[in-house]
């Protein structure tokens, strides 16, 4: 009777071969939808059984049903097999070929102490088969609808291989828990030391993550609650939810996202609200929605926190770089795990846990490194700021002393050098008058006079530069006819242009060129531009001065056909003591201060000097001057060419 029963039941057999990967139980699975669970395996009744693809009630099976699997060992020696059955409540009967029956009990809703295979995870039974023995396993299953966990295709594992794998897993889990606890205590100490909330959220993230994995592997219940029904999946979900919430808060505090990444910070706040919603759905038992919503929310957390790190890094937030380094591995493996959960539960069940566990351990270690980097950066920045402040104070003091020394030296130059030079110029002129018939003496006195005048001009430039730097130069503005001023300058410089056979001309466009300026300072600007044009224009060249009067501005342009300026020369044009590439064509002297002084004087008038130049074709320097408000004539005396300086 037993043999007939086995033959009738075995529509499909699951062949178990040692040292070879077994096929899923679903390949030989049949289900009887007798919700009353009145079927008795001892009667060898086969009515009502039909092929099924999985143990999941979502495939159409009721909350209570019978299932059976025909097993066939092809080994020549006795073998033992572990059959994972992650269902709520399973009462199993193994019927052998000779009619003997063995009873087993397991399930997520069965206390560990009542299971015949006392291992928390995986939920399973252990079956022993003789050499080439066949048997039929009957399973009385109670599985509530809407459960969080579903097992679509459990795969048998040889008992010896299972024990080897479990020992390796226990060793890894011990190391994993030890690292997490060490990191948690260390960062808790750092929190008490620095009072930085990011350390506290990191500790809570570690604790919730450790709880998640302790529940997932079953070690928490094996160690502490073997007599208690273990709601593994629900506790995993809530622990993971706590870890996600703490991770969001850690990132927000660590990266200071309110300041460094405002938009990702707002998204993270919204994700916090979604996670609270997931927790509420889980608490209400809505497991057909809560896990999937949590998975999608987790994707948002991973991508948003990573984008927050990028935004903070772009804003120059130094610790963000260390965080990004930590987040890359977790982001990649976390997205892969979520993808497996959503699209391939079978593959997720086999490799998902170690993959996610390794990624979380890696990120935990790297986040701890990021926190230490943050501490070092803050300490280093403070020390560097103190050193920089001390250097700045010392430099400022040295600059003040140098500026005071410069002022004293310029005062000495003004009073101790200019007066003798003026005397030299006067005496050279007297010598020429007293020796009208000595051309050789005239040549020498002319050379003396030219050298002294160059020195006087240089001293005057230095004095004006010092006055401009010290803010002591004041403009005496009055309505001035610029056409007459420019014409007077051209008349003064015509002899120099004639000496180099240059054509110097003035062209006036527009109406009356009247502006409120300091005539002496304005004349100095025009003189500098005309002098430079003559100085750098070759013999026989052309220097054209153009005066144009508009509604609000007067433009004085000095155009020449000299060598022109390169881009580098134009960039350095108004820097002090900067010698340009072109050389004066008549061996005239150049101090390197003229254009710098002219630009500063132009800006004092509210104007500017513009330059347009083409290398090899010439240059155009334009003094743009606002007309300003007209004021009464002769309200102030003419400005002195000598800035006021105090003697040391």
TrEMBL record:
It is an enzyme of class 2 (transferase). Keywords: Kinase, Membrane, Phosphoprotein, Transferase, Transmembrane, Transmembrane helix. It catalyses: ATP + protein L-histidine = ADP + protein N-phospho-L-histidine. PROSITE patterns: HIS_KIN. This is histidine kinase. The chain crosses the membrane at residues 171-192, 199-215, 235-255, 267-287, 293-311, 323-343. Its EC number is 2.7.13.3. It comes from Rubricoccus marinus. The keyword Membrane applies. One of its GO terms (molecular function) is phosphorelay sensor kinase activity. Residues 412-629 form the Histidine kinase domain. InterPro entries: 7TMR_DISM_rcpt_extracell_dom1, 7TMR_DISM_rcpt_extracell_dom2, HATPase_C_sf, HATPase_dom, His_kinase_dom, HisK_dim/P_dom, HisK_dim/P_sf, Sig_transdc_His_kin-like_C.
């Amino acid at each position: 009777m037993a043999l007939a029963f086995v033959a009738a039941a075995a529509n499909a057999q699951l062949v178990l071969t040692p040292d070879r990967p077994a096929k899923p139980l679903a390949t030989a699975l049949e289900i009887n939808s007798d919700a009353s669970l009145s079927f008795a395996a001892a009667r060898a009744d086969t009515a009502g059984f039909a092929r099924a693809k999985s143990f999941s009630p979502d495939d159409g099976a009721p909350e209570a049903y019978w299932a059976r699997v025909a097993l066939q060992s092809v080994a020549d020696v006795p073998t033992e097999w572990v059959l994972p059955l992650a269902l709520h409540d399973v009462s199993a009967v193994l019927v052998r070929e000779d009619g003997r029956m063995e009873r087993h009990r397991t399930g997520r809703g069965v206390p560990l102490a009542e299971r015949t295979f006392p291992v928390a995870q995986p939920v399973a039974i252990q079956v022993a088969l003789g050499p080439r023995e066949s048997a039929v396993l009957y399973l009385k299953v109670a599985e509530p609808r809407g459960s969080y966990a579903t097992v679509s295709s459990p795969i048998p594992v040889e008992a010896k291989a299972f024990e080897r794998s479990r020992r390796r897993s226990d060793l890894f889990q011990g190391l994993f828990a030890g690292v997490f606890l060490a990191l948690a205590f260390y960062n808790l100490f750092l929190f008490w030391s620095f009072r930085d909330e990011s350390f506290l959220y990191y500790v809570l993230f570690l604790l919730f993550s450790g709880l998640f994995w302790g529940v997932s592997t079953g070690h928490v219940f094996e160690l502490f609650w073997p007599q208690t029904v273990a709601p593994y999946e629900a506790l995993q979900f809530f622990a993971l939810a706590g870890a996600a919430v703490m991770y969001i808060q850690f990132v927000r505090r660590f990266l200071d996202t309110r300041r460094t990444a405002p938009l990702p910070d707002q998204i993270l706040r919204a994700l916090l609200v979604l996670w609270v919603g997931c927790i509420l759905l889980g608490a209400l038992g809505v497991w057909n929605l809560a896990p999937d919503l949590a998975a999608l929310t987790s994707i948002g957390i991973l991508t948003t926190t990573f984008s927050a790190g990028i935004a903070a890094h772009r804003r120059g937030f130094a610790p963000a770089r260390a965080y990004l380094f930590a987040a890359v591995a977790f982001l990649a493996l976390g997205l892969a795990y979520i993808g497996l959960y959503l699209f391939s539960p079978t593959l997720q069940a086999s490799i998902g846990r170690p993959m996610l566990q390794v990624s979380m351990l890696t990120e935990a270690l790297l986040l701890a490194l990021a926190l230490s980097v943050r501490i070092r950066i803050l300490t280093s920045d403070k020390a560097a700021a103190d050193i920089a402040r001390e250097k700045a104070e010392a430099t400022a003091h040295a600059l003040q002393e140098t500026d005071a020394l410069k002022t004293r030296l310029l005062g000495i130059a003004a009073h101790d050098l200019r007066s003798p030079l003026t005397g030299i110029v006067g005496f050279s002129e007297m010598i020429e008058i007293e020796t009208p018939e000595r051309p050789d003496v005239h040549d020498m006195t002319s050379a003396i006079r030219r050298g002294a005048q160059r020195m006087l001009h240089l001293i005057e430039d230095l004095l004006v530069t010092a006055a401009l730097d010290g803010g002591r130069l004041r403009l005496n503005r009055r309505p001035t006819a610029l056409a007459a001023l420019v014409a007077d300058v051209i008349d003064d410089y015509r002899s120099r242009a004639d000496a180099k056979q240059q054509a110097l001309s003035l062209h006036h466009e527009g109406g009356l060129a009247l502006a409120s300026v300091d005539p002496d300072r304005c004349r100095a600007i025009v003189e500098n531009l005309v002098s430079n044009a003559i100085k750098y224009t070759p013999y026989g060249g052309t220097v054209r001065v153009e005066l144009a009067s508009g509604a609000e501005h007067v433009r004085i342009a000095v155009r020449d056909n000299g060598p022109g300026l390169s881009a580098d020369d134009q960039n350095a044009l108004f820097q002090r003591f900067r010698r340009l590439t072109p050389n004066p064509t008549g061996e005239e002297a150049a101090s390197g201060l003229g254009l710098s002084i002219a630009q500063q004087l132009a800006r004092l008038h509210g104007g500017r000097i513009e330059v347009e130049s083409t290398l090899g074709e010439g240059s155009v320097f334009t003094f743009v001057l606002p007309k300003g408000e007209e004021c009464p004539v002769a309200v102030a005396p003419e400005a002195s060419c000598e800035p006021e300086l105090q003697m040391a």
